[in-house]
Design a protein that fits this description.
The chain is 42% helix and 6% strand. The protein is mainly alpha-helical.
Length: 72
């Protein structure tokens, strides 16, 4: 199952939760504002908790790719 989809006909090609029109960035915007995942899911019922968890796992796995080595 795909978690994120990009379709030029949906939200102008912005990455969205698959099967919805909800941009993935909406999740991170909610979290930055202090909302919980449950609050996000209540605001966007077309997104499943499994999808949110998968996106958070993808983000967590990607962080090391952007880390800089510590100064020695």
């Amino acid at each position: 199952m795909s978690v994120v989809s990009i379709d030029p006909k949906v939200q102008g090609g912005v990455p969205c939760f698959a099967g919805s029109r909800v941009p993935v960035s909406s999740l991170f915007d909610h979290l930055k504002k202090g909302y919980t995942v449950d609050q996000f899911l209540a605001d966007f019922p077309t997104v499943s908790k499994a999808q949110v968890e998968a996106v958070l796992d993808l983000a967590e796995a990607d962080v090391p790719k952007h880390a800089e080595p510590a100064a020695q």
